[in-house]
Structures are given as structure tokens and as C-alpha cells.
Design a protein that fits this description.
With about 300 residues, the protein is mostly helical. The protein is about 55% helix and about 5% strand. It has two domains: about 90 residues, DNA polymerase, domain 1; about 180 residues, hpI Integrase, Chain A, CATH 1.10.443. It has a three-stranded antiparallel beta sheet, with no helix packed on it. Helix 1 runs antiparallel to helix 2, helix 6 runs antiparallel to helix 8 and helix 6 packs across helix 10. The longest helix has 22 residues.
């Protein structure tokens, strides 16, 4: 039966596997699906299919991406996709794994951008000037994102039942559907309680206020006659709008707040292992990059305290 399958069938089978068995995150699923479609289009142009392509075809595909200006980081992700795709094809359909020996490009380690603590204060202060219901929601989102260090995808998909006011913890569903619990400062929880009790229902259209909504997204938008989670793009737009009213000149994204918390905690003495658990990183090496960010802090202490400095 496998002999009758074409490239499109293999792709459908792989994406189904990603969703039902691998249970990848939505972002990974979308990226991998797009990567595979890009490969299949490339092979089609070369009049080659998945069965008869070889390692050189894959290397030519990656070279074209590089020539087109695709970054090494993106190419590295695409190689991960190809390895996963061909490993799946080998196990399920006995198709030779031509991606097994592909080599990842050397990535230049770039330090994450982050905000200083007084810049975080300024950002939240400016956000707090908008006392409208949406303004309150926006400041809750910013405060929660920074205070917890969660990913923006985790923030926008938060549901009310993930908030535990008794323990002061938020339960997050991270990459690979891995669950973790993160503590949130009491002041943020009180602000969150105010939002839920005084603002939350006001943001809903009147037609939705009496309904029992099983989704219970903490931050929602009303679209196509139903409540849906606010999108990452929408939150990015909210952040940009607030940033324009500050004196902050740095390039800032939602992820910058996550980097900022990690840097501030490390500066205050948090250990790498605790940081790894808080941020939900599988590999501790991912967290170690933040140690480079605080060399300036160590230098300041040295110059200020060392008797011979």
C-alpha cells in the first residue's frame, strides 16, 4: 500500500503524527509543515520525489535557502525538521533516511536583548496610565509576562483555571505540552484578582456575559461570534503601542520581558537550575547564556568593592 503513496500523502501522514503522537506545539507544527512543503516544492521543481531524492538534493535545498538569505538559525531548524521527517518516513514506510547525516550550521551565539529594571518600571508605569478596561487588561498581561517569565504563547493561551490564588502559582503548558508551575508575586496576583472580578466580564460583548464559556481564556478577543484567545500578534501590537509612549529606545519584543526576568533573577543570586525550571528550558545550556549578560554587573561590583580597583 505504501508503494501507492505520493509526497503529499507522506506529508499528511507526518503532520498527523506531529499532532496526534508527537503532540508538538502549534508553532512547531506550523513551522515543520511549512518546511516540508518548501522541500517538496523544491524537489518538484527538480522533477524528483521523496522516494528517489538523495542527500545531495537535500544539501542543494539548504544551499538555496542560504543563498536566499535565510539565517543560520532558521536553516538549523529546517534541518531538525528534515531529520524528523525522514526518520519518520524510514520507520513507517521503509524509505531511506537521507537526512541523517546532514550537519547543522555553526550558530553565532547572540546575547538576548533585555530591559533594565528601571526600564521595566517605566514600561509598566506607562501601561498603568490607561485606566480603561482594555488598559487594565494590557497592564495585567505585561505584568504577568514579566513576573512569571512565561513565553508569549503561554500567556495568550492561559485559562482562568490555570490560576491558583490559594498557592500563588500559575500552571503553564509549555513546549511539547510539558506542564510546569511557576510562582507569581502576591501583588501581581492581587492585580489579577481585580482584573477577574472587576474587568473581565466587561470586556465581553453583552451577548456573551450570561453564557457559560468552557474556554475561559484569561485574555480573549471576540471573533466570529465566539471568544478566542488573543493572538500573539495582537499582544505584540499592544506592547509596541505602549513602548512608543516611553523613553525606551531598545528593540523590544514580548520575549524581551522573559529575557529581562531571567537576567534580573540571575543578578539577584538565582541559580541556573532554578532558572531552568522557571523558564521551562529542557537543556540547562539554554539558560547559561544569561550568565554572560551579567558580566557588566560583576565588573561593577569588582570596581566598587575591590580594595585595589
Amino acid at each position: 500500500m505504501a508503494d501507492n503513496l505520493g509526497d503529499t500523502d507522506f506529508l499528511v501522514s507526518f503532520t498527523t503524527y506531529l499532532l496526534t503522537e508527537k503532540r508538538t506545539s502549534k508553532n512547531t507544527f506550523v513551522a515543520y509543515k511549512k518546511d516540508c512543503e518548501q522541500l517538496l516544492d523544491f524537489l518538484k521543481d527538480k522533477k524528483v520525489n521523496i522516494r528517489i531524492c538523495n542527500k545531495q538534493h537535500l544539501k542543494n535545498f539548504l544551499k538555496k535557502l542560504k543563498d536566499d538569505g535565510v539565517s543560520a538559525k532558521t536553516i538549523s531548524r529546517k534541518i531538525s525538521c528534515l531529520k524528523s521527517f525522514f526518520n519518520f518516513l524510514n520507520e513507517r514506510f521503509n524509505i531511506a533516511n537521507k537526512a541523517g547525516e546532514l550537519v547543522f550550521p555553526k550558530l553565532e551565539q547572540t546575547l538576548p536583548n533585555f530591559l533594565l529594571e528601571d526600564e521595566i518600571e517605566e514600561l509598566l508605569k506607562v501601561a498603568g496610565k490607561d485606566s480603561s478596561d482594555k488598559g487594565v487588561r494590557n497592564r495585567v498581561m505585561l505584568s504577568l509576562l514579566y513576573a512569571s517569565g512565561m513565553r508569549v504563547s503561554e500567556l495568550v493561551n492561559l485559562k482562568t483555571d490555570q490560576i491558583d490564588f490559594d498557592t500563588g502559582f500559575v500552571t503553564l503548558l509549555g513546549k511539547g505540552n510539558k506542564e510546569r508551575m511557576v510562582p507569581v508575586p502576591t501583588a501581581i496576583f492581587e492585580f489579577l484578582r481585580f482584573y477577574l472580578e472587576k474587568v473581565y466580564e466587561n470586556l465581553k460583548p453583552k451577548s456573551e456575559r450570561e453564557k457559560i464559556n468552557n474556554n475561559n481564556y484569561l485574555f480573549f478577543t471576540y471573533y466570529n461570534n465566539s471568544l478566542k484567545p488573543i493572538s500573539r500578534q495582537s499582544f505584540w501590537g499592544i506592547l509596541k503601542n505602549i513602548l512608543q509612549k516611553t523613553n525606551i529606545k531598545k528593540k523590544v519584543s514580548p520575549h524581551t520581558l522573559r529575557h529581562s526576568l531571567a537576567t534580573h533573577l540571575l543578578k539577584s543570586g538565582a541559580n541556573i537550575r532554578s532558572l531552568q525550571l522557571l523558564l521551562g528550558h529542557e537543556n540547562i545550556s539554554t539558560v547559561q547564556i544569561y550568565t554572560h549578560l551579567e558580566k557588566s554587573h560583576v565588573r561593577e561590583i569588582y570596581d566598587d568593592k575591590h580594595p585595589r580597583a
